[in-house]
Amino acid sequence: MDSRDCTGDSASVRDAAATWFARVQAQSLSPAEQAEFEAWRARDASHEAEYQWLASLWSATDLLPEARLQALCELPDRAPKRRSVMAWGLAASLLLALGAGLSLQWQEPGAYHGEFSTLAGEYREVQLPDGSSIELNSRSRVKVSFEGQQRRVELEQGEVMFSVAHDTSRPFVVRAGAGQVTVTGTRFDVRRDGDQARVAVESGHVRVQGSDASGAVSLTAGLGTRVDAQGQVDAPLAVDTRALTAWRTGQLQFNDASLAQVAAEVSRYRQQPLHVTDPAVARLRLTSVFKTADTDALLKALPRILPVAINTRADGSQEIVAR
After folding, report:
1. pLDDT digits 0-9 by tens, 169-215
2. Which terminus of the chain has fewer CB atoms gathered within 10 Å of its CB, N or C?
3. Alpha carbon distance 272, 115 (integer Å)
4. What is the CATH number of domain 250-322?
5. Enclosing H/E stretch for 63
6. In the CATH hierarchy, which fold is given to the domain comprising 112-242?
7. Mind listing the pLDDT tens digit for each residue in 37-67?
């Protein structure tokens, strides 16, 4: 079945959601198929609603004994409702896709696996089964894996705010580029740019490690650090966590930021990037607040604030130039 064609009635949407969910859980998507999946999710609110319903169903299976799961996967004797058929089909297809390894996950209390992402300009909050939550900024992608005595998250790109449920017996570890953040319960923000990572702590305590464990640093509320592409961790410094995480309330806050920094940040929320190629223009500074959902307003305001103009390139992207 081609999932791209299932955009009509509610039954076909449910079937498409089940197909996509099984393939995501089986980790069988190529980069092109991942992009197709994200496009399907974004195409209609009903697609995302059905997919999230399956995610909640899947999380609930972690709490069921293996015998009960096997019973759920047996075809019922009488004609069930549409939801029941779809739930049965999902459970059976996932069993086939993941095989014995899935049974082991189900037998282990608290085991969980999930992948979450956002498109340009999208914000998304996800509740995890341990009571933790993650908030994804624009163009972000994470993989979550809870197994044994550890909770792991791989930040593949973008930025995420973590609110971690306290559990000293199961550390919560976030990997981002060359950096690793370890906590037992706290609120902190991690941003990945290539292989570099930035960490800012709103509350609690975290340990940030790079390529060398001896160079790890400890951060408490109001402190942050950076890990470069080589795995070197900077010394802790005071940060404005409210400004750094203003994206959670739909804001872009710039405090004496260079236009190079502004362009890079704004590009995360636009379909086409914003360019600054003139070094003199890139060094100009900006202090202001804008909405993440209306970056066009920022482009209209810039020529009134600074001696610049906005040019549109042939590919549709825009560039900040000297006026």
Report:
1. 899 999 999 999 999 889 999 999 999 999 999 999 999 999 888 88
2. N
3. 25
4. 3.55.50.30
5. none
6. Jelly Rolls (2.60.120)
7. 888 888 887 787 777 777 656 554 444 444 5
